[in-house]
């Protein structure tokens, strides 16, 4: 599953390589609007007459992609790193299937780690109560919650999470790397 996702991640990184250099931030509205300059993107890559990529860029999914990934200051992820920093590696792997497969497996491993940051934590199943258990007299009432103790536990959790490695903490916003300009890329 993760390897298939990694292959698609590479495919979209190759398709949209350099897209950030064709984004325009329009600030005349109350909320800034991000516009993608399709003609510049296709022209600089020499793909003006490419029917497939033109249809992809005109689709609603790409419009959502631009609005979600267009802001210059947001949480970055694996796709951003792939688009910005792995250009040369992807080019070098085009004629070498073993290297390409190795890279796909590395990406799949990163996708797995992103979804399972703490694989050692096991979840315990809670058994269902037996039939008629609610009728038993010896069940003690639920204890009252000690508000002070709850606050202490919350504070302990916060201090632990601030000392945790970056992978387990929530996404922090940063400046999205622009990557190389579109003019570097030619598609085959």
From TrEMBL:
What GO biological process terms are annotated to this protein in UniProt? regulation of Rab protein signal transduction
GO annotation, cellular component aspect: cytoplasmic vesicle
Annotated ranges, domain UDENN? 1-76
Q: Extract the GO molecular function terms from the UniProt entry.
A: guanyl-nucleotide exchange factor activity
List, alphabetically, the SMART domains matched. Answer: dDENN (SM00801)
Q: What's the name of the protein?
A: MTMRD protein
């Amino acid at each position: 599953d993760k390897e298939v996702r990694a292959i698609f991640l590479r495919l979209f990184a190759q398709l949209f390589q350099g897209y950030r250099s064709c984004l325009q931030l329009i600030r005349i509205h109350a909320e800034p609007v991000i516009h993608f300059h399709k003609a510049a993107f296709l022209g600089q890559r020499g793909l003006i007459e490419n029917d497939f990529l033109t249809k992809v860029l005109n689709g609603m999914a790409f419009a959502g992609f631009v609005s979600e990934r267009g802001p210059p200051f947001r949480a970055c992820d694996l796709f951003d790193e792939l688009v910005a920093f792995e250009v040369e590696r992807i080019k070098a792997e085009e004629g070498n299937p073993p290297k390409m497969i190795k890279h796909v497996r590395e990406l799949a491993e990163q996708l797995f780690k992103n979804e399972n940051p703490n694989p050692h934590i096991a979840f315990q199943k809670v058994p269902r109560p037996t039939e008629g258990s609610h009728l038993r007299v010896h069940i003690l009432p639920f204890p009252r919650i000690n508000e002070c103790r709850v606050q202490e536990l919350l504070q302990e959790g916060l201090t632990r999470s601030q000392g945790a490695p970056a992978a387990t903490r929530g996404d922090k916003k940063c400046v999205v790397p622009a990557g190389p300009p579109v003019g570097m890329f030619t598609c085959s």
